[in-house]
Specification:
Elements: H1 3-33, H2 37-75
């Protein structure tokens, strides 16, 4: 996988995971209001895992952009 494809994948993750986090938060709040604390707790843990994955994708995107920039200047 080259840098361009890696960057596309990471960009989709960086932009898509916040939407997933918003939906998970909304559903967890709905389940809490309905009295299903156990499922809301599970969704909270899934949300925490998604936040960690989002942070890793964000750092990865920054690293790939830096590598791409260095590769571009080396070609010139």
């Amino acid at each position: 996988m080259n840098l361009r494809n890696s960057l596309k994948t990471l960009l989709v993750c960086v932009l898509g995971l916040p939407i997933l986090l918003a939906v998970l938060g909304w559903v967890a709040g709905l389940l809490t209001a309905m009295g299903d604390e156990a499922t809301a707790s599970v969704l909270g843990h899934i949300s925490t895992a998604a936040r960690v994955i989002w942070l890793v994708c964000l750092v990865g995107a920054i690293v790939v952009l830096a590598m791409q920039s260095l590769e571009h200047t080396r070609e010139e």
